[in-house]
Structure formats: structure tokens, C-alpha cells
Amino acid sequence: MSGTILKGPYWVAARQHRHVLWAVPTVAAVALVAVVALRGWADGPNSDQAGEAWPGNGYELLRLLVGHAGTGLLFLPLLVGAFVAGPMTARELESGTWRLALTQSTTPRAWLGSKVLVAAVVSVLGSVALTGVYRLGWARVAGTHQLHWADRGTYEASGPVLAAYCLLGVALGVLVGQLVRRTLVAMALTGMLTGLVLLCLGALRWSLLPVQTGTGPLEGNQLKLMPASALMVDTGLLTSTGERLPEYACFERSHHRTGCPADMDVTGWYVDFHPVSHYWPTQLVESSLALVLAGVALFVAFRLVGARRA
Fold it and tell me: CA 131 to CA 157: how far, in whole Å?
């Protein structure tokens, strides 16, 4: 039956790494059971329905699990890239076993394509499943400390950007694996490159969409100038001409926490923020950027393997 599903180099690639491939649904199933159990406990009679959790109850354990899971899923694209670069690509080139595939009427591009397809399908299905499990748990504890929708870890783990970064890891893995041809070195280099892309796009993330701005009088609280669920990007003082000053400008002049010198002409506060409605557009734009980079890496990888000779 399995032979009718996968044939040729695709069957070989799946067969070679079957233990790792089976580990993906196993991890997702275990995570689902844990989240469902903790959600049931958190919603039970011993839970504080007002959201005030105390150590040891289901709500707090669920919050801790979701928090650690978000951090852990940040490393998933790095692990995907390292595995594709090392065991799937560089190890075969290093040992020369890839030549065996070429004796079975398989072209170098078909050999590489089998690695890419198997790794891409498993990483996408696995990341989507883990994202679904994460959102199931996060929905119960969203908005608590370090679990805001824009927090690092929560943002990546709760949307399609995680799958996009996993595909980027696959693409970088097959490219670096060919260039380096040393298993451990290829794994380390791919992990670092994938992590670097995550850091760079993460730094640019909140510049992809224009911010919204709220203004108000100096006597008010600037935090009330934006929705409670929003992500604050910048805040400061406004003069009558619209000039922006740092929020500590008055304190530097007067050394008082309240009031501004008259000659500063400060009239109020401004707050730049991203509302929660920016979550999905930012996810889609960032995912598109990651997929474009993955496409470029795959193009170079297939050009490189096409020129390779056994």
C-alpha cells in the first residue's frame, strides 16, 4: 500500500528518516492531550474564573506550559533546517551514498526534490498541527504576562508564520548541506542562518504596517489613548506645533514628575501602537517574506545540484 503512495526516491527518503517522521505526529498528539487535560482542569471548580491564578492549579500550569511551548516552537524552524542540512543532505554527500540513488535511474534534481518534498510536507503538517494545539491552550490564558498576542514566541507559535519559517529551514538546509557537505557543520550553520533570519524579520516585523496614533491631554494617562489589547510602539510628548518630544523631556528640565515648563509648549501625549487587527496582516506579510527567501534558496540549491556530477 505504501508503495502506491510514495515511489522511487520519495519512498527512499521517507523510509530512511521514518523514525523522525513518526516522532512529529507523536509529539503533536502528546501536546494535544496535555493541553486538553490542563484546559479541563483550569476550567474546573478549583479554578479562579476571574483570571487570578494561584501556583499549582490547572490555570497556572496551563499558562506555564503555553509560555514554555511558545519559546520552544521558536526553535522548531532551526531544528527543521539543521535536520534537513545534516542527516538528509550533507551526510549522504559526505559518505557518497547519494551515488546509489543515481544508479536507480534517478537524476540529481529528483534526488534533491525527494528530500525537499518529504521534509516540506512533514514540517508544514507538523507545524500547523502544533500551532493548532498551541492556540487551543493559548486561548484560555491569552493576554496574561508574556502571552500577549505580539510577544516573541506567542506571535510565532500562534500563526502561519511558523510554517513559513519551517519551509525556510528546509530550503536553507538543502542549500547549506550541498555547499558544506559536512554533517555537523552543515547542521550548525543552517541553524544559525535560520535563527538569524528569524531575528532580522522579527526586528522588522512591526515596521511592515503603519502604526496608528492616539493623542490626548497632558493631564491624562497615555496608556488610555490606545486599546488595552494593542501593542505600544512609541509614546512621548506633543507640542502645540505637533513636534514630538521624549516622554521624559519635562522631567529632565524640571526634575518633577508632574508639570512641564511653559517654554516647552507641551500640550499633550501621543502614543503609536498596533491594534490587534494588525495581527493577521502582519503574519501574512512576514510569511510571504520568509517564503520568498525560501524560494530563492531552493532555486540556488536546484541549480547547484543540477551542475553536480556523481
Answer: 6
Give the bridge partners for 232, in sequence order: 273
Do 201 and 259 fall into the same domain?
no
CA 245, CA 261: separation in Å to the nearest integer? Answer: 13
Cell of 261: 515648563
Rg of the chain over CA atoms, in angstroms? 25
Please check whether residues 137 and 178 belong to one and the same domain. Answer: yes
Tell me the one-letter amino acid at 17. H
Q: Are residues 252 and 285 in the same domain?
A: no
The reply to whether 76 and 95 lie within a common domain is yes
Same-domain pairing of 291 and 258: no
Find the mean pLDDT for residues 28-55.
Answer: 72
Q: What is the pLDDT of residue 108?
A: 82
Pairing of strands 244-246, 212-217: unpaired
Separation between Cα atoms, residue 63 and residue 208, nearest integer Å:
30
Q: Which of 260, 241, 239, 258 is nearest to 250 (CA)?
A: 260
- Dump pLDDT digits (tens) for 284-296: 999 999 999 999 9
Looking at the structure, tell me whether residues 203 and 270 fall in a common domain. no
Q: How far apart are CA 263 and CA 239, in angstroms?
A: 10
Distances in Å between the Cα of 211 and the Cα atoms of 25, 125, 207, 231, 247 are: 39, 33, 8, 10, 18
The whole-number pLDDT of residue 100 equals 67
Residues 131 and 14 in one domain: yes
d(CA 259, CA 135): 45
DSSP 144: S
Please tell me the predicted confidence (pLDDT) of residue 107: 81
Whether the CB-CB separation of 66 and 153 falls below 8 Å is answered with no
Residues 6+ apart with CB under 8 A from 54: 48, 60
With cell 482542569, the residue in question is 41
> Which has the closest alpha carbon to 172: 202, 199, 201, 192?
192
Provide the residue range defining the domain that includes 174.
2-207+278-306
Neighbours of 131 (CB within 10 A): 22
